[in-house]
Q: What sequence folds into this?
């Protein structure tokens, strides 16, 4: 920390007070060049180790302010870092295409679809998380965040890899919107007791336990839909990579 007695840009000592910065420190503005500065700057250098730790903490049920307290970073920096990581998550979610001949795929490729209630900003702004999961590998093959209408179901269907849209057998609950989207010959609308959607329902529990924004009663809810979707996508990508590491080739 180096005290400043002059403008760091032009060296002029002709400056005036200019309110306070977000931390409460007195801000100054140079009358010559207009540069704003504080007398005692505290520019913290974030190490690679801290960045790696934050990447892992973003996958756990901990609030952003909790991460700030644990790692010792500012909230504004963390928000920017978080958005960058969310945007870097790939659209393909690290889904691997099923291997084998067409005959084998026709008999073995199965998927489960389920929905999970969430909200953004206020509980009146409901956002449903639509999840499609491979029943064998238990990887998430597609997701969509939106309302609970047929349009959202159609978007989830469009997000599915082509091989699943063309060949997979789908198991869902008895929600009516699925009937007009999934081909009838490859759609099983089942009751809860049939237990053909247990993997998808179990993953919904995992989401609520690991993503703080999805906890039913939480102060960590999303204020922006983009961050809400980004956090879910970020977790799914890591989840699929983890599943790839434990499943045999």
A:
């Amino acid at each position: 920390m180096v005290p400043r007695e002059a403008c760091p840009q032009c060296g002029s000592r002709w400056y005036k007070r200019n309110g306070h910065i977000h931390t409460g420190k007195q801000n100054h503005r140079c009358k010559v060049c207009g540069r704003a500065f504080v007398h005692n700057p505290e520019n913290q250098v974030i190490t690679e180790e801290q960045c790696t730790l934050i990447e892992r903490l973003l996958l756990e049920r901990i609030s952003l302010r909790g991460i700030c307290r644990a790692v010792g970073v500012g909230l504004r920096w963390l928000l920017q870092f978080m958005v960058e990581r969310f945007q870097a998550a790939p659209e393909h979610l690290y889904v691997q295409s099923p291997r084998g001949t067409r005959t084998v795929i026709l008999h073995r490729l199965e998927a489960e679809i389920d929905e999970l209630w969430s909200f953004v900003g206020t509980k009146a702004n409901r956002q449903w998380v639509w999840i499609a999961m491979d029943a064998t590998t238990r990887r998430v093959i597609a997701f969509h965040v939106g309302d609970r209408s047929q349009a959202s179901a159609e978007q989830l269907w469009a997000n599915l890899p082509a091989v699943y849209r063309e060949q997979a057998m789908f198991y869902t609950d008895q929600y009516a919107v699925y009937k007009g989207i999934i081909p009838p010959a490859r759609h099983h609308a089942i009751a809860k007791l049939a237990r053909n959607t247990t993997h998808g329902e179990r993953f919904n529990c995992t989401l609520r336990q690991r993503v703080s924004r999805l906890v039913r009663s939480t102060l960590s809810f999303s204020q922006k839909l983009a961050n809400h979707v980004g956090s879910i996508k970020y977790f799914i990508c890591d989840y699929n990579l983890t599943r790839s590491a434990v499943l045999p080739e």
